[in-house]
Write a structure and sequence with these properties.
The chain is mainly α and about 150 residues long. It is about 65% helix and about 5% strand. Helix 1 (about 1-25) runs antiparallel to helix 2 (about 45-70), helix 1 packs parallel to helix 3 (about 80-105) and helix 2 (about 45-70) packs antiparallel against helix 3 (about 80-105).
């Protein structure tokens, strides 16, 4: 259990260090993605808020899961689950934070390139989203004559 707390604490410290580095490296108008597991639920937070949200979430997970694992609620759990759960969750949050900071540093250029590629592939550059979010397959299917 002590090793779990040490590893989790190191991960939370790494999250704080990543945020401090982001505060120094990122431009003032940077937007940091904060998401709930998918791109569709991504919120672009202002720089200061994004740099606080990620380590705050890590510290919250550290406290909640570490507390639950040490409490009587987890008495019936196997020792491996109690030992590994909290560091694993905080480690995943650290990985998401590093990814979000990398995206913010690139200025979301990769996302814009993907949108441009999607527009070009669908043959409708400049009017993306005008016909049902660019589903080229539907347009091709709709344009074919039906034999009956």
């Amino acid at each position: 259990m002590v090793a779990s707390l040490i590893v989790g604490g190191v991960f939370v410290l790494a999250m704080v260090i990543a945020s401090v580095r982001g505060a120094v490296v990122l431009p003032a108008d940077a937007r940091i993605p904060v998401h709930a597991g998918s791109v569709e639920r991504c919120y672009l937070a202002p720089k200061r808020a994004g740099l606080v949200i990620w380590p705050g979430t890590g510290a919250l997970a550290f406290g909640l899961l570490g507390g639950v694992a040490a409490s009587s609620l987890a008495a019936d759990w196997t020792a491996s689950v109690r030992t590994v759960l909290m560091p694993a969750v905080v480690g995943v949050l650290l990985a998401f934070q590093v990814g979000a900071l990398a995206i913010a540093r690139r200025g979301m250029a990769a996302g814009r390139e993907m949108d441009t590629r999607r527009e070009v592939d669908s043959g409708h550059a400049g009017d993306a989203g005008a016909e049902g979010a660019g589903h080229a397959g539907e347009r091709e299917r709709d344009g074919r004559p039906r034999s009956g």
